[in-house]
Amino acid sequence: MPTSKQAFSKARYKISHSGFKELAHFGVNNFYQDNSYGTWRGYRVIAADGSSLRLPNSEEIVNEFGLFKPNVTSGKMPPIARISLFIDLCTSFIINARMERWDVSEQTMAQEQLVEVVNNLSNG
Questions:
Q1: Number of domains in the chain
Q2: Does the residue 115 lie in any domain?
Q3: For residue 17, is pLDDT > 90?
Q4: Are 39 and 80 in contact, with CB atoms under 8 Å apart?
Q5: pLDDT digits (tens, 9 = 90+) for 45-95
Q6: 70 falls within a domain
Q7: FRET partner for 71 with CA separation of 20 to 30 A, picked from 29, 94, 112, 120?
Q8: For residues 65 and 62, what is the distance between their CA atoms, to the nearest angstrom?
């Protein structure tokens, strides 16, 4: 018997995000066991980038990420998240990604992620 769209939608809310984080961590460690793959002149070329992401307006999302509050407000403000990622430029493999409240700076996120990236790659 096929699963209805409503049942599938309800079931996906029961999935914990921590499983995806563990799977990504495992993938990075497994991918980088071969030190010669995807290098430029023997070096890994890694970049960091950040941006803002407009989120759907729901009570749960607003509670988690807050509402965007610029200096001048005109009308209703949407929920905004700050996103940051580290990417291997030779392979296009995302090494680390994070999503935080809009009021967390990209620089702060990158500094915290850099420690994780170095630890993950040195243990890989």
A1: 1
A2: yes
A3: no
A4: no
A5: 999 999 999 999 899 999 999 888 766 666 678 889 999 999 999 989 899
A6: yes
A7: 112
A8: 5
